[in-house]
Write a sequence for this structure.
């Protein structure tokens, strides 16, 4: 975002890029009052609980400076939808706090297109926000709902449950790598796939909803398996064993990255936004059937047992990854 678009004031900007005509009737969207007043008024469906999450993206930290605006808009919402997916919640509304160094209409065009494309795909209404000047920083809050008492938590895994993961791991990490260093010509196609996985993460919203009542615990993978899985095990008060040779790797990752490095990316790289789930072995077929209906890969990668911590094995032997997940304050 370089050139300023001088004539675009704050209110004109909001009207032009973020305040859209109602796409849905209020009875369906739950939006009693949207953008334009001091706050939004929202109506929850009967017998539900509100599920809320917020995530901030800082340029140069969560995405490289100069990232395509459409990708930034998509990511800002996607990472939040992923948190709702991990709770099994149906997303409904979002607010946007946008801090930008300058007002650039072309950038805003791309950003809002990326954001609204994903919002529309999940029937999410943007109902408010805040617009300020400063280093490029985007906070999106999402609000959704679950039938009373049915939210998927991190704390429900029990000894004997299987650990399963959606999709494939390590792709976004490889994509980030390739977006800063050009791949070899023979792997360029695969690299383009991987870059897309980083730029346009797919929150597993429908699968999260389907997993309600089947999975005993869930979380989304934002900081890498090594960083995130211990949080799930600890919250549930159980230990978990994972066979690293069974981690699901995409064809693109296998093509573009040597095997050892691919495994390390699958273990430690962040930004995949896949779901990790605990499920009683007897219910696994139901969870798998739900994934099949959505054309989503689901792979059992380990099992929970009594104890504490995570044990990694490789071809039956204990394995010390010697890597760690992403921690902003480490
Ligand atoms: P206030 O002064 O009450 O904070 P603002 O002048 O900041 O209100 O915003 C006016 C309206 O526009 C409010 O309804 C607010 O929610 C909405 N809004 C402001 N910025 C954004 C944005 N980036 N995206 C969506 N809605 C926004
Ligand atoms: Mg304000």
């Amino acid at each position: 975002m370089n050139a300023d678009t001088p004539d675009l004031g704050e209110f004109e900007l909001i009207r032009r890029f973020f305040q859209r005509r109602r796409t849905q009737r209020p009875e369906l969207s739950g939006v009693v009052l949207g953008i334009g007043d001091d706050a939004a008024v929202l109506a929850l469906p009967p017998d539900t609980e509100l599920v809320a999450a917020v995530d901030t993206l800082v340029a140069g930290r969560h995405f490289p400076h100069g990232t395509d605006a459409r990708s930034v808009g998509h990511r800002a919402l996607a990472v939040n939808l992923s948190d709702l997916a991990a709770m099994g919640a149906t997303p409904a509304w979002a607010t946007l706090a946008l801090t930008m160094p300058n007002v650039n209409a072309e950038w805003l065009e791309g950003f809002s297109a990326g954001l609204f494309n994903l919002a529309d795909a999940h029937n999410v209404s943007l109902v408010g926000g805040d617009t300020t000047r400063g280093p490029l920083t985007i906070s999106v809050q999402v609000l959704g709902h679950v039938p009373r008492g049915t939210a998927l938590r991190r704390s429900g895994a029990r000894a004997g449950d299987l650990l399963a993961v959606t999709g494939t791991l390590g792709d976004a990490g490889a994509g980030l790598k390739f977006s800063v260093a050009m791949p070899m010509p023979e792997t360029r196609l695969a690299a383009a796939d991987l870059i897309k996985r980083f730029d346009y993460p797919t929150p597993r919203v429908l699968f999260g909803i389907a997993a309600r009542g089947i999975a005993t615990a869930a979380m989304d993978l934002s900081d890498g398996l090594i960083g995130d899985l211990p949080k799930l095990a600890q919250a549930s008060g159980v230990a978990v064993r994972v066979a690293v040779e069974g981690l699901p790797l995409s064809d693109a990752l296998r093509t573009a990255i040597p095997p050892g490095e691919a495994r390390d990316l699958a273990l430690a790289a962040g930004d995949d936004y896949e779901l990790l789930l605990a499920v009683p072995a007897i219910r696994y077929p139901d969870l798998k059937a739900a994934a099949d209906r959505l054309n989503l890969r689901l792979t059992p990668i380990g099992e929970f047992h009594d104890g504490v911590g995570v044990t990694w094995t490789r071809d039956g032997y204990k394995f010390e990854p010697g890597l760690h997940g992403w921690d902003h304050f480490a």
